[in-house]
Specification:
By secondary structure, the chain is of the alpha+beta class. It contains 13 helices and 38 strands. The structure holds (2R,3S,4R,5S)-2-(hydroxymethyl)piperidine-3,4,5-triol. It holds the Pfam family Melibiase. Belongs to the glycosyl hydrolase 36 family.
């Protein structure tokens, strides 16, 4: 069968049309080479170009320079990428300053190229392809009207995904130096703001990450951003545009997700005639990139998804893309081990004896990995010292680190280790020997946070010294998993080794990516987990190197429902670490049943984080059951299709479901927070099932798929606060289906 091209250019209408069966993206070269945006959304068949953008002479919206048509203005025309200073008063995608101090930039179409597949970016995380045929990339080059300053706009479209991947490359071909003061990855101008009236963002705080905030888009500019040097707990780099009527399963949604781990900004402007402009990429705050003659700057990628199947439809696109074409390596689809982490069991206060006792219990309970958290290196007994000293704390573990790792292996468990490579303590060998490795303006006291400071990762020699230490440990100790933590935001962002200080934030992130690429490539068997005081750097950039991340330091089951629900908007379940911890919970003090804690954590990459040696017999029995249940449903949870059913941000209950890749099994999670004297009944309706009959495992009750979807089942008549339940349905395979399956 002949493959259809995914990208077409019509030289009569000057229209570019990127399309697959799900989406279309349409642009047009207007008069004088202004590149306009026409459509991003559902697939359009047989586009005629007869729906012209209306031309109207609007007061104070002047004309395109060198084009004297009064009704043609950059101030209203939807555009693909805007420069600065030629009568477009909306937020620009880029600001470029030249040696004479001018930042005027008037971008016009220059040329285009269609590339089979997708070119690789160097030094950045990115979406990838497995074979050339699965995607095509359009590169449109814009050029300043007068000067050889170019912006290459990249658009990749996959054959079967509802996404466009965008990025921009800025090139300086002038004889002089220029400075990028703002270098967005994308701009999206939407003509009819009646279609997208709301924005969903994922704000939060430490131990309260990625909570859903849905807001009406009003006049003016609204920005969702991080200035902390990382993607941050406070504002994740994922947003969605929706209509007021968009629900989990119905209506239009556009998802915007940045594949980057540093400062970001999404700016949304509703203009004078109710049109929307969205610009996103690296935050312009404290950013300035110097480009000498013939130099170029490549931005990180932005994922633009479109779904007309509600927020769940949008999330499916991001889940599948991140799982299949962003995460990499041996563990991408592998069942992730059920772990126990000693952090909340011991904090810094542990001995070999204590750790071995935890390992013994973990093995007896059926767990699969032991993770030794903070406190094993330097002279680390508190969070005030030793960061940067990635050698074993002599004498703290009587049998040594290797002894502990071997002990875990003897007991049939994998062994994992915690590190925080980007940081330095003043009380450390590293600081005593190389104080200039600390990021600061020389002779100016930097701000501490958690008594620690940031290493200047813009410098290769700094990264190399950390890499050498880590490699020694990784070579000497049999390690199966690494938890890579980062426990503060950047401050005092200055490097005496970088010529232009506006580059330090981004060069730090590039340095981090460089080290992550080096280590994850050198140790491909290790399962790497990202962490930043919980979920402070939970982003698509980190997932390119490490397929999972610690979701939050908050392990309170009730708060976790919100955190996991919000996170699922843009991130696959296989990326979310979720652990059962002690009750009362260490963060909130809330008391919940072990069952509740287990049920919630089982909706992620499951593990434990409590003192196993302090468990009673009854608790051990429950934990054994949880572990055996999770082993049965693990691949449905980690690799299945996830749908949100009931939104805990709107009500006292929550529900979600997972459908196995072969569609034969469904796991449903339900929760109710607070009880009441006369609780209402709730019917929970499932989605996306096949025809046929399903048996629920615990009750053995049989339901038809159609019944489960149209009528649903009742939320259990719970008694008391903080109650949860998990249901596991299996499709009853008929003789005929079995036969068909064996033929196929
Ligand atoms: C923050 C992490 O999120 C915790 O899980 C733990 O590893 C601590 N850091 C250790 O310092």
């Amino acid at each position: 069968m002949k493959r259809q091209s995914l990208i077409a250019f019509d030289s009569e209408t000057n229209v570019f049309h990127l399309s697959n069966p799900l989406i279309s993206y349409v642009m047009k070269i207007e008069e004088s080479g202004v590149l306009s945006h026409i459509h991003f959304g559902k697939k359009v068949s047989n586009y005629t170009d007869n729906k012209k953008y209306p031309r109207r002479d609007r007061g104070f919206s002047g004309n395109v320079p060198l084009h004297e048509e009064r009704a043609f203005s950059k101030d209203t025309l939807p555009q693909e990428f805007s420069g600065h200073g030629s009568m477009d008063y909306r937020i620009p995608a880029t600001i470029i300053t030249r040696e004479n101090g001018s930042s005027l930039l008037d971008l016009r179409y220059e040329t285009y190229q269609i590339i089979q597949g997708k070119p690789k970016l160097s030094g950045l995380p990115q979406t990838y392809i497995l074979e050339e045929q699965e995607a095509q990339t359009l590169c449109i080059t814009l050029k300043d009207r007068d000067l050889p300053i170019y912006v290459d706009l990249f658009y990749t479209i996959y054959e079967k995904r509802g996404v466009i991947i965008r990025s921009a490359k800025y090139r300086n071909q002038t004889e002089q130096t220029i400075w990028l003061d703002k270098a967005a990855s994308f701009q999206l101008d939407l003509t009819n703001s009646g279609r997208f009236t709301e924005v969903i963002a994922l704000p939060g705080a430490h131990a309260r990450e990625r909570l859903i905030s849905r807001q009406r888009i009003t006049e003016g500019v609204k920005s969702f951003e991080s200035r902390r040097g990382s993607s941050s707990h406070q504002m994740n780099n994922f947003i969605a545009l929706t209509h007021t009527h968009t629900t989990e399963n119905l209506g239009e949604a556009i998802g915007l997700q940045f594949i980057y781990s540093g400062n970001h900004a999404f700016e949304i402007e509703k203009d004078q005639i109710d049109q929307l402009r969205i610009v996103g990429g690296i935050n312009a705050y404290q950013f300035q990139w110097q480009l000498s003659t013939n130099e170029a700057f490549q931005t990180p990628e932005m994922i633009l998804s479109y779904s007309d199947e509600g927020l769940n439809g949008m999330s499916h696109i991001h889940h599948e893309l991140l799982r299949e074409r962003v995460t990499r390596g041996k563990h991408q689809y592998e069942p992730r081990p059920i772990l126990v982490n000693n952090w909340e069991a011991t904090y810094f206060d542990f001995t070999s004896k204590k750790i071995e006792a935890l390992i013994d219990e973990a093995a007896a309970l059926g767990m699969e990995m032991f993770v030794l958290d903070d406190g094993w290196f330097g002279k680390r007994d508190a969070d005030t010292s030793s960061l940067g000293d990635w050698f074993e704390y002599e004498g703290k573990l009587a049998n040594g680190l290797k002894g502990i790792a071997e002990y875990a292996h003897e007991k049939g468990l994998k062994f994992g280790l915690w590190v925080e490579p980007e940081m330095i303590s003043i009380d450390s060998e590293l600081y005593r020997q190389t104080p200039d490795y600390l990021m600061q303006e020389p002779a100016r006291t930097p701000a501490a946070s958690r008594s620690q400071f940031v290493l200047d990762f813009t410098r290769k020699e700094v990264r190399d010294s950390i890499s050498q230490q880590l490699r020694k440990i990784l070579d000497e100790v049999p390690i199966d998993y690494i938890k890579w933590d980062m426990n503060r935001s950047l401050s005092d962002v200055y490097s005496a080794y970088v010529e232009n200080q506006g580059e330090v934030y981004h060069r730090y992130v590039l340095g981090l990516y460089d080290l992550l690429e080096e280590l994850t490539t050198a140790y491909p068997d290790i399962l790497w987990e990202g962490c930043s005081g919980g979920g402070g750097r939970f982003d698509a950039g980190i997932l390119y190197y490490m397929p999972q991340s610690w979701t939050s330091d908050n392990t309170d089951a009730m708060e976790r429902i919100d955190i996991q629900y919000g996170t699922s908007l843009g991130y696959p379940i296989s990326s979310m670490g979720a652990h059962v911890s002690a009750s009362p919970n260490h963060q909130s003090g809330r008391v919940t049943d072990l069952k509740t804690r287990g049920d919630v954590a089982m909706s992620g990459v499951f593990g434990y984080e409590l003192d196993l040696t302090a468990l009673g017999e009854q608790e051990k029995r429950i934990i054994k059951e949880q572990i055996s249940t999770y082993k049965e449903i693990r691949q449905i949870i980690q690799q299945g299709k996830f749908d949100r059913l009931e939104n805990p941000f709107e009500q006292n209950i929550a529900a979600w479901q997972f459908v196995s890749p072969n569609k034969k099994e469904i796991v449903v999670f339900m929760a109710r927070r607070l009880t009441s004297g006369q609780p209402p009944f709730h019917e929970i309706r499932l989605v996306g099932l096949e025809e046929g009959m399903y048996r629920e495992r615990k009750s053995s009750l049989i339901y038809s798929g159609s019944e489960l979807m149209t009528m649903g089942i009742y939320l259990p008549d719970f008694h008391g606060d903080f109650q949860t339940e998990i249901f596991h349905f299996e499709k009853i395979v008929t003789g005929e289906e079995e036969e068909n399956a064996s033929i196929n």
